[in-house]
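Appendix B. Chain record.
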Amino acid sequence: MRETTPKLAFFGDSLTEGYGLQKIHALPAVLEAMLSSEGIKVHALNFGVSGDTSHDGLLRLNHVLNAEPDAAVIEFGANDCFIGEPVELVRKNIATLVQAFMGKNIPVLLVGFACHSDIPAEYRQMFDPIFRELAESLGVPLFPNIIRPYLGNPMLKLMDGLHPNEDGVRAMAEALLPQVRELVESIR
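Structure tokens predicted for this chain:
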């Protein structure tokens, strides 16, 4: 018998995993709690792994698909940007990830990433449009920049200056909530 509570796979890197935080303070758990407070029951599956690039995501793809999620939030790109992965490779990897879910009729919310200003401008200009272009070409909704809700506020970051603390994750979750809510409603 199939579970009645929809399963929502959060598939990404440390920003999904909740780097440096307890699991209950990671993005998937916080969004699950926010939805629950609205009377929307979901089972948030945390498939975030710190340090993962979009290529690493491809290596874990079957594991996520085998969990049989009803919808997926896909968030990769930060580590690709930091190590300077070739932009066309990143684009291809993320397209492959999204298409794998779409091919199984699993709705997707694509979560983008914009490079920090310390990344060379030439690379940023090629990298930053990837997510918008993929969302348009694949016909999926896009949350443009996962770090925007907390990046400018040092009170929302861990000591490393990159990752969100509990309040930073809450800021991300509040910003993502309307689109995650729509994603869940699309599977009902």
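Further analysis of this model is presented in Appendix C.
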